[in-house]
C-alpha cells in the first residue's frame, strides 16, 4: 500500500515540474512574441487570475476599434469616389466647352477663307482690267 502512495507522490512532483516548464516556456514566448503594450495586458490578465475578464474587455475593445476603423475607411472611400465623380463631370463640361469653341472657330475660319477667296477674285479681276 505504501508503494502506490509513493508513485502518486512522484507523479505529483513530476506534474509540478511539467507545469513549471510550461509556465517558463509561456513566459519566454510572451517576451519574444508579444510587443510591450501587449505584455502589459498579459501581465494584467495574470494579475486578475486569468479569469478572462480582461480578455473579454480587450476583445470588445478590439471589435469596437475594428468597426470604427472600418466605418472611417468607408467614409474616406466614399469621399474619394464622390470627388472622382465630381472631377469626371467637371472634365466632361470643360471638354464640351472646348469642343463647342473649336466648332465655332472652325466656322469662323471657313468664313474667313471664303472672304479671302472673294477678295483674291476681286483683285485678280481688277488686275486684268488694268
TrEMBL record:
Residues 37-58 are annotated as: Disordered. The chain crosses the membrane at residues 64-89. Signal peptide: none annotated. InterPro entries: DUF4577. Pfam families: DUF4577. It comes from the Eukaryota. Keywords: Membrane, Transmembrane, Transmembrane helix. This is LSME1 protein. It comes from Erythrocercus mccallii. The gene is Lsmem1.
Amino acid at each position: 500500500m505504501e508503494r502506490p502512495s509513493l508513485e502518486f507522490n512522484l507523479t505529483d512532483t513530476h506534474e509540478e515540474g511539467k507545469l513549471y516548464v510550461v509556465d517558463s516556456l509561456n513566459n519566454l514566448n510572451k517576451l519574444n512574441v508579444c510587443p510591450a503594450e501587449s505584455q502589459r495586458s498579459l501581465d494584467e490578465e495574470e494579475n486578475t487570475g486569468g479569469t478572462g475578464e480582461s480578455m473579454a474587455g480587450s476583445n470588445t475593445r478590439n471589435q469596437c476599434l475594428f468597426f470604427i476603423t472600418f466605418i472611417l475607411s468607408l467614409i474616406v472611400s466614399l469621399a474619394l469616389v464622390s470627388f472622382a465623380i465630381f472631377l469626371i463631370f467637371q472634365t466632361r463640361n470643360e471638354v464640351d466647352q472646348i469642343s463647342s469653341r473649336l466648332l465655332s472657330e472652325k466656322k469662323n475660319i471657313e468664313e474667313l477663307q471664303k472672304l479671302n477667296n472673294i477678295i483674291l477674285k476681286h483683285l485678280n479681276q481688277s488686275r486684268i482690267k488694268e
